[in-house]
Structure formats: C-alpha cells, structure tokens
Write the structure tokens for this entry.
Amino acid sequence: MTINHKRAEELRTTLHHHNYQYYVLDDPEISDAKYDGLLRELQQLEADNPELFTMDSPTQRVGAAPLSAFTSVKHEVPMLSLGNAFSSEELAAFDKRLRNRLDDDTDIEYIAEPKLDGLAVSLLYEKGILIRAATRGDGTTGEDITDNIRTIGSIPLALKGDDWPQTLEVRGEVYMPKEGFKKLNEGLLKEGEKPFINPRNAAAGSLRQLDSSITATRPLAMYCYAVGLVKDGSIPDNQLDTLEQLGQWGLRICPEVKKVKGISECNDYYQNLAYIRSELPYEIDGIVFKVNNFDQQKELGFVSRAPRWAIAQKFPAEEETTELLDVEFQVGRTGAITPVARLEPVFVGGVTVSNATLHNMDEIKRIGVYIGDTVIVKRAGDVIPKVVAVHTQGKKRIVIEQPTQCPECGSDILLEEGEAIARCSGGLFCPAQVKESIKHFASRKAMDIDGLGSKLVVQLYDQQLIKHIDDIYRLKAEDVAKLERMGEKSAENLINAIEASKQTTLARFIYALGIREVGEATAKSLAEHFLTLEKIQTATQEALEEVDDVGPIVASHIVTFFKQPHNQEIIKALLDANISWPEIEIIADETQQPLAGKTYVLTGSLTSMTRSQAKEKLQALGAKVTGSVSKKTTAIIAGEKAGSKLTKAEKLGVMVLSEEQLAELIA
Ligand code: IVH
C-alpha cells in the first residue's frame, strides 16, 4: 500500500467518523473548518491519484455532474403504502381485526413511530457500501437518485461494523427539518425566488434535482424505518431490534420510536405525540403502528398494496384548501394594519377556521393572491392560521387593495419608508388601537389580570366604562355586573383580579405599557439596567442604547413614548392607583445569583407552576433559560410528556432534572 493510499484511507475513515458524529449523533467533535480542511486534502489526493477514488468517499457528498434524466429502478421487494385510521375507533377496529386473525386475544406488541412527512427512499448497500438510492415511485418502479442521496450528511456512504448482510436494502423517509426549511425559504426570498410551500415540497423539490450540487446545498435529513431486500446475512426477528441494529450500522433512527403494548398504550402514544408535535424539529402527519414480531407480520400478510400488520393513524391535516371570500383590514395595538382573509370555513389543524392572516401587502403580492382564489391555509399547533399559497386561481378574481383610511377611525394610513407594515396614524383617537392596548395591558405576561380577556375589554370599551388603561383601576363591581354575560360573582372576581395586579414588577409594568417593539425581554433588560421607572422615563437615546438588545430604533420608540403628555398622564394615574413593585436589588456577588453562568432548558408540562413562571424564577437566580439543548446546557428540566428535547439531552449526556428537583433548586 502506498503512502497516498494509506493517507486516503485514513482520511476517509476520519471523515466518516466526524460526519456520523455531526449528522447522526448531533455531537460534533471538530470544527467545520477542520472538517473542510480534511475534506479538501482528500479531494486533492483523489484528483492527483484517480486510482485512489472509492464509491464511498466522503468527497462524493458535494454533488456530481448534472444528469439529463433519472433512470428507472425496479424494486425487487415492492415498496408498499399504509392503510389509514382517522380516529381512535378506527385504530381499535384495526387492533381487533389483528387479534381475530392471529386468533389470540392478548395485547399485541406494536412499535409506534412518527409518520414522517417527507419522501420514502430506498438505499441499497452492497458489502456495506451505498451503491444505489431510489425513490418509491409507484412502489414497483422508482427513480435512481443516488447522486442526490449521497449529498445528505446523515446517510452513511459506508455502513459501520462488519456484520451486515452482503446485500441490504434500507428504507426510510428523507425530509427537511423545520429550521432548515425556514432558512432555505428566507434565502430564496432574498434572492427574489419563489419559496417552497412546506418542508415536504422542499424535500421533494430538492431530491428531484438533476443537478446534485444543488441538492448538496439543501438541508435534508433521513430517518430509516424498514428493511427491504436482504441477502447473505440476516437481521433481527422484530421491528424494534431491527431499528436498533440499523442504528448500530450508522443509520439514523427517529428517537421517538417506542414499543407499546395493546390499544390503550397506542392511544397514549398518539396523544403524547400530538401534544409535542409542534415542538418536534421535523413535520409529522400521524403515527405508524407496526406489529413488532416479524413472525406475526408474516402470518398477517398483505391486502392489495398495504400490509395488514401496520396502520397510519393520521393527525388532523395542518393544511387545507378553501376559498378566499374577502379580505378585511384589522388595526392592531400599535396601529399596524393587518389584512385578514375571510375564508369559506374549513377544518384544519383540528379546528374550523374562517379567518386567517395575510400578514401585510408585501406578502399578498408575494403569494399572488386575489379574492375568489382557492388558497392553502395552514394551522399548526396553536399558531394563528395563515394563508400560505394560492392553490387554484378563481374564475372571477378581485384585486386586494389596502385602504388609505383606517377602517376603525378614518385617520390616514401611513407606510413609513423601509417598513412592510402600514399603520393607522390615529393613535389614541383610534378605538381599535385603544382596545388592543387595553387587552395587551391586561394580558398574562403584562399585568396578568385574570378574566379581563378580549371580549370583556370590547364590552367595557363600548359601554364607555374604560376609555384608557388607567380606567381599569376605577372600575366598580356594580357597573361590571350589569354587562351582558356577567354576574355579581364574576364581576367581583374581576375586581379582585384587578386589585391583585397592582402588586407587580417593574419589568411587567414597562412591558404592559405597550411601547412599540418593547417586548418582554427588552422590558426586563430596561428594568435591570435602570432599576427605577423614573430613570427609564428620563433616559436619553444614548443611555437607552447602552442596554442589552436596545438598538437605535427601539431607543427612539422609547423616547417618543415617554415624551407624549398623554402617556405621562396615564402613567401618573396608574401610579396613583397604587400600582407598585419591589425595588430591584443590585446583586453584587454570586451568592445571591447562585445560578449565574448556568443554562437550563424547560420541556414538557409542569404541574406546580407554568413554564414561564419556572423560567422567571430561574432567571431571578441568575440562570439563563434557553429553548434548545446543546452540550453547553447545564441541565434540562423535564416535566410531563417531555419529548425530543429530553431524548436529545439523554443522548448528549446532559443532566435531566425532575419537577421536584427543580423545586429544590429554586428553593
Ligand atoms: S412504513 C409497509 N414507517 O408513509 C410499510 N412509512 O403511506 C411501509 N412514512 O410511503 C411504510 N413515516 O413515505 C413507514 N415510520 C414510518 C413512516 C412511513 C412516514 C411514509 C412513507 C410511506 C408512506 C406510507
């Protein structure tokens, strides 16, 4: 073996290892720059010595010469589809059918897996080397997408170990993680190109590229969930062990896969995944339940193109199509004008939606939507439904025009230079802005006035019981009790909640004032920096810009806000109503900030407090609370139904604390 040969082999092994650490374990050991350096060295070696090139070389991940067309691939073992269940009743019927067929009434052992929303792909390994990858196609014949698949970092070009069958076909789903999808679309928009509608389309579009160097730039990933052709070697006799084995050979397996026994555990799994669905870093559209035991699978067999031993229980669709009937313009707290789509009601994301946001006029232009079109509406988790694209153009299309006058108060609508959002110039004369500012003032993260929700604010405003936020503190129980759907008891509760809200924090109070672009975090920074309201009110533009996350624009909004005489009057009236907060202590040493320098992640639901209360308490002790787990995380606090973050923490060896341990920590 020549020195070059040896070095090339060494580089390949090292690069495979770091690739696996990075993409499969999400736990890189070297920097990107170092990796690129090693890759370039191998590229050079191969270019100078073509005889050193191998099929599994990591240099093959950057993309090959463009193809003129994909060639067809015949699947020796057909790639099947799955039967669907749309309710727990249908799932129970499936389970019963299987127990009848197996002539065994004991609980069946299933493997529950997220139904990944991507594209089914087949990977063929000969002697442990990836030699071909294909799409599912019609299940019998697919397309050869080997060059594209090779660019996906989480797919091994060579399997780890040496105990694999000589021929092994692995199947799974190629998908685009939500985060990567967001970034890809942002990039496309910046370049003036059309963004993708959803991660599935983006994954499909990326895999269908004839030029694999484009695919190489797309953030694709793969989870494996089945085995097709196996020759000269064997695999375990059940689904879970097979997945485990594939994992040992270096293939990526979804961490949410779990063994469940009997229908009640299936239901629990479904509920839990529906609960954490929006937190998962990838899109799923349901759960696949598979009989674990392969002998039982064989006994159950197939019906037409689907196995009898598996079923997909679908989640309510997050995207649906419906007709855009009209567009109305809503006025927000800061006067922002938002176009709102009035839709033919449609069931999406588990609820009936008849209104959806269109964000702003730029977005309307970008989507190219007109009244009368059939549009795609998306509602994921508890996120506000939005119109994401035109599905089909309407026969009669009406152009959407932004009004020049505020629909609520008639003031001029102005569009500041460089801004996408137009605003009503009416300020406190605009009833819509006043109502929204009252709602914001009372909201949970602001003054937290329990019971003072959106509908009640509108009633109180319309009855002229509240004209500005300070009027809240002059409300009388007997007046409130007279309102529709209010009784004496609820009026009394409201007055008590208003009274209780007077004990607050400076940060909450600042946030509650609703200064433009001063969110929760900025309000907190302002409070911690200046310590008193007076100092914030009188701070100069320069002094404000010294605060963390306050830039020139936010600083100028703050200065403008406090300059307005009517805002000063309202603040005075609020303080006269005895709103107060504890003085902020200047923390001098670490003993008072025992968690300084520590980083925590909260996941799942807590029983004794909300996540945001826990966050506030940890932050008060000096800790940082972030949303994603990394090696730098001190510990993760896992409440009930903790999902992927917990799995990731366990994988990275990050400490996991229970709710009780959190309580001790805070105490
Ligand atoms: S198993 C014989 N497992 O669902 C069973 N499929 O409707 C073959 N899918 O084409 C599929 N996640 O694209 C299986 N964990 C999972 C899956 C999954 C997503 C897709 C796959 C397949 C379709 C079947």
User: Anything to note?
Assistant: The radius of gyration is 29 Å. The first strand starts at residue 72 and ends at 74. The chain has 24 helices and 24 strands. The domain at 83-314 is CATH 3.30.470.30 (D-amino Acid Aminotransferase; Chain A, domain 1).
